[in-house]
Each structure stands twice: as C-alpha cells, then as structure tokens.
Amino acid sequence: MFQQLLKSAGPPVVGTFVKIPSLEIAEIIAAAGFDFVVIDTEHALLSVRDVYSLVVLYSRMNVAPLVRITDHGYGDAQRYLDAGAAGILVPHVSNAAQAESTMKQFLFPPAGTRGMGLAARAGLWGSISGGSAEYVRAGQEDIARIAMIEERESVEDIEAILAVPGVDAVFIGPGDLSLSLGVPGGSPDVHEAVTTSIRAAVRAGVPVGTVVQGEEQIHLRAEQGCRFILVGNDTGMISEAARRTLSQAREALPAAVR
Description:
12 helices; single chain; 8 strands
C-alpha cells in the first residue's frame, strides 16, 4: 500500500503522526484525506492492541498505516506486520551494520529471519489467495522498511545505509538530528544534514521523506526530491483547533462581558 504510493507519479505523498488511541479521531484524520499515517509507539503510550485497532481502521479507510517502533527489537514489530501494517519505521539507525541487522528481522528467509504468521490478519487469517507463497511475497515486496536517519553518525554513513538490502526508504528526523549535532532545531547545521541525506537518497534511488513545517519547507523538500512528507500530528491538530476555537469565541464576546 505505501510502497505503491512511493512508486506513483506526481508530488510527494502526505502523512501525519498518530499518537492518540482513539478510533473516532482516527476516522477524522483518515477522512481528511491523508495518504498515510505513522502510528507512533516510540513517543506515545500505545499498546499493541491500540496499534492493531488503528492499523485496521486506517487500512480500511484506504490510508496506508505505518508504525514507528520503539527500538530495534523484533517482537512487537512482527505483530504489527502481521496485523497488516504497511510499513515499519526503525528509529535511530546509526550505521549500515545496524541497518542490516535490524532490517533482516523484517525479511523472510533466506534474506532475513522473519517468522511465518500466515494465520494472522496479513495472511487473511490463513485464507490469502496464493497461500503461504503470496503471504511471503507480500511481506517481502509490499512492506516498507524505513530507516530513520536521526544522528550525526547516520548522516556520515548515509550512503552505506542506503545500500543495505531491506532498506526500502529512509526518513530524516531533524529534531533528533539537532540533539545529536548539539545545535538548536532549525539551525543551518540541521538544514545541511537533512539536505545532505536527501540528496544522497535521491542519488541512490531510495525513496526519502522528512517532517516539514510551513509552505517554504514543503516546497524545498519536494524540490529536493522527497517522496513522502509528514506534517504535524493528531495531538497538535486538536490542540491548535481547540485554542483557535476558544480564541475566536472570546474575541466575539462584547468587551463589557469579557
């Protein structure tokens, strides 16, 4: 689902982070028309059951559900994939060796070590047309395994990371890059690190994405070759809407009543 979006012609596809385990909010986000979402288990208190419910809802509403996992481990990520997630974002991939050892977990043998879960949702409860062969093919070809570039070391080793089998795309995280570089967010050093990584990915023919704020950044990253961009998150959208609604109400009150 997400892989097909990355291969489609046209402008970058647009997604947002999801942090709230609410099906009602998920329906609102999906109905808004986002191409994909990133369900965030790294920075939000989401259970495996929460993620499962969100994956089902978003996929049913034709929004590609990706999951940002908490670490480089296999356990929960396996369950997210068998639940039908369209892809996995692996945080803090520091170098090519780390990328290789991590991505192998999400590839079936002989390329990797992922286990068979044909009876799960991704296998249509064991009734997928084509049986285990189709389940394995879909797991190898249709799932997006995305390495997150968030550290100085990652940028320095970006070309080797991009060449690792199983790295289907990379996502550049400017927030953690600023921490790793020891400079404020939005500084020239962060901008240069993001730009360097994007250009390397474009040269290597690997789809690349990042998080953006404002029209200027959207234009810039699209022109540089990003295939997917993330804008905001569900908590921020609700917070902004709540503040705006209250502000408008207070402004509308007569001065004598305030």
